[in-house]
Amino acid sequence: MKTFKIGGVHPPENKLSKDAAIEVLDIPKTVYIPLSQHLGVPAVPVVKKGDTVKTGQLIAKGEAFISANIHSSVSGKVAKIDDVIDTSGYRKTCIIVETEGDEWEPDIDRSPDLKEDCSLTPEEIIKKVQEKGIVGLGGATFPSHVKLMVPKGKKADILIINGVECEPCLTADHRLMLEKAKEMLVGISIQMKALGVEKAIIGIENNKPDAIKHISELASGYKGISVESLKVKYPQGGEKQLIKALINREVPSGKLPIEVGAVVHNVGTSLAVYEAVQKNKPLIERVVTVSGSKIDKPSNFLVRIGTPVSALLEASGGIPENTGKVVNGGPMMGKALNNLDAPVAKGTSGILLFPEREVPRKPMLNCIRCAKCISVCCMGLEPYLLAILADKERFEECENEKIMDCIECGSCLYICPSGRPLLDNIRVGKNKVGQLMRSRASN
Predict the structure, then answer these.
(1) Which 8-state DSSP code applies to residue 43?
(2) The sheet that has 44-45: what strands, in order across it?
(3) How far apart are the C-alpha atoms of 236 and 241, rounded to whole Å?
(4) What is the pTM of this model?
(5) How confident is the model at residue 442 (pLDDT cuts 50, 70, 90)?
(6) Distance between first and last Cα of the chain
(7) If you write DSSP's letter for every residue of 366-388 in order, what string do you get?
(8) What is the spatial order of strands in the sheet that 52-53 belongs to?
(9) Cα 227 to Cα 214: distance, rounded to the nearest angstrom
(10) Share of the chain above pLDDT 70, in %
(11) Using only C-alpha atoms, what is the Rg of the chain?
């Protein structure tokens, strides 16, 4: 069974919502749409307080090279543009829209009919993806049009589609593969055309046999698209790990997948590309898993961007007693929420509720030099050393030890028997090293 070779862990899967069909969540009375819900520079508002907007209307423009357009997810009136606490816990600028009905932009095709033929040129496809604000929905939220623009001097020969969803508890991608596979496959073929490649591989962990069977049957009707079953191992869905597992190529330190001729996109992104190119639909909604061992109704909701998290929790039966933590994202890489009215953004894959008994960390003890953190690091790093160097503010040494290669998967924190805050320290170190690198580049 194919997998990556270095490191990895096997946390309990807890896919409680895998059989829950996607439900359309009610439109909220007010949405809070962040200007920064993608990697790169925040978008710039093109509307002001008092303006009337339609669903799908451009409300903020991504003007930098790495940025993304933002569209209204509802129709109504712009109440104000203000700072709101988002899922990161920090105040971020949002366009706040009070809902009045649900009037869509007229050029958006809302019919369920599958539109397969795409007559656009590669350049026109990329432009459409950019216009509609499509970003990576696997977590990184990298603007998708940038990935489709192969840099001069580089060449892509394969498109890899991430259907792994290796994070425990999350099932949004699983449900999309079962319920929107045809649209997803058209989106993949469109991306292949944009990149000029003739081969695409969809990687899916073998704990999703229904998705593997369903997509394999449908993919047989699309030239160049195949499905590969992968061993269940976290973090199989990391870009570099997925490339190694599927085509046995290693992305060099500090480099991107294009260095080895690959471009990686998520299954949800592929659906969004289909909707953007074939239906003129911007990225204004996404599927979000809501799960937890004690909640009444583990669910997968189709949610308008900007919807308060509290609305999802209410639709899942409310917050159970003795809930100790609510997490945005998966249990390995997600972050605890300090505000349940924080808005759903393009990168919100799941909202997880953990009871108090599951929340406390292990008591922090001295490092016992067991080297377990090294054995599970999928990037071949020494997490214990990076954590110490970061804690001692020896950031140049952190850079020399390749701290920026860390993908923050949390495997080291998960495996450490001494409860050391390895990932916490490494994140601080990465932030500081990033500042040093940008400072050097600007001089």
Answers:
(1) P
(2) 44-45, 58-61, 70-71
(3) 6
(4) 0.96
(5) confident
(6) 48
(7) ------HHHHH-TT---HHHHHH
(8) 30-34, 91-99, 76-85, 52-53
(9) 10
(10) 100
(11) 21
Query: Look-up: residue for tokens 């009707």?
Result: 221
Q: Is 234 helix (H, G, I), strand (E, B) or coil?
A: strand
pLDDT in tens, 76-105: 999 999 999 999 889 999 999 999 989 999
Token pair of 247 as six digits: 């085509």
Q: Give the whole-angstrom CA distance, residue 118 versus residue 123.
A: 13
Residue in the structure block whose two tokens are 């108090």: 356
* Residue that the structure tokens 């998520």 belong to: 266
pLDDT tens digits along 381-405 = 999 999 999 999 999 999 999 999 9
pLDDT at residue number 429: 97
In the numeric block, the tokens 């999350």 are attached to 170
Could you report the per-residue pLDDT of 196-235, keeping only the tens digit for each? Answer: 999 999 999 999 999 999 999 999 999 999 999 999 999 9
CA–CA distance, 227 with 243 (Å, rounded to integer): 14
- Phi then psi for residue 170, to 5 deg, are -80, 135
The Cβ of residue 14 has, within 10 Å, a number of other Cβ atoms equal to: 17
Cα–Cα distances (Å) from 271 to 10, 145, 265, in that order, read 29, 14, 10
Beta bridge partners of 335: 328
What integer is the mean pLDDT of 227-245? 96
* Domains of the chain as residue ranges with CATH: 23-99 (2.40.50.100), 122-279 (3.40.50.11540), 285-358 (3.10.20.600), 372-442 (no CATH)
The amino acid sitting at 312 is: L
